[in-house]
Amino acid sequence: MVWVKSELAEELAVVAAWLSAFIPWSVSVALGSIQGGTLVEVRFPLGLVRYLFGIEVTGDASLQNPLLKTPWGAAEFYAGSPGSLPYDLWTLGVVVIAAAVLLSIAMYVFEERLAESAVDPVRLMGGLLLVGAVLLSLSSLVLQLGASFQLGSRSLAADPFPGYVLPIGVLLQYAFAYVLLRVERVEETSADGPATEDTA
User: Fold this and answer.
1) Higher per-residue confidence, 28 vs 190
2) What is the b/e burial string over 42-80, where b = at least 16 CB atoms within 10 angstroms of the residue's CB?
């Protein structure tokens, strides 16, 4: 099945990297679980926005509305409860997505040099998006289910986040990774033979 024409593979890789960097990767919704009100937390790769509806906001910093945090700021903010583990995984995922964005810039600036390199930049982009999606999936699982395990002398634990975690952007990243990793790079045929298209 043809997913994308080969001449558009590089453009798709660039667009996929930037969409992955700006589309929310997950949304948490907790209805009536905090003082009878609703909590909605939207997580973008570079930060989260948390809204509280129907909850009395006092001087408590944890009830700031809306609350804005970076991934590493959220790891520090939630270190006590539910725990920093899902936010640490998110931070690692952001590093991988940032690498994908840098690769997308390099694909424009050094287009000819990358075209001649031994590594296919389109497949490399697919690999980066796949690793990022896996890390964000793990973060989503820990947010939803909680986790507890020992890593050497350090104990890592996290309680479930209230409500339901919807990994919206992660699914899109998996789709991008699949399409980019399936790109077939075929050498151009001679003038006598029929032209072939690379497909993904």
Assistant:
1) 28
2) bbbbeebebebeeeeeeeeeeeeeebebbbeebbebbee
Cβ-based burial of 152 (10 A; exposed 0-12, middle 13-18, buried ≥19)? exposed
8 Å CB contact between 127 and 181: yes
Region of residue 83 (left: phi > 0; alpha: psi -120 to 50; beta: else): left
Reported as a pLDDT band with limits 50, 70 and 90, residue 178 is: very high
Is the whole-model pTM more than 0.85?
no
Contact 198, 5 (CB under 8 A): yes
Q: Nearest Cα to 95, choosing from 141, 48, 49, 128?
A: 128
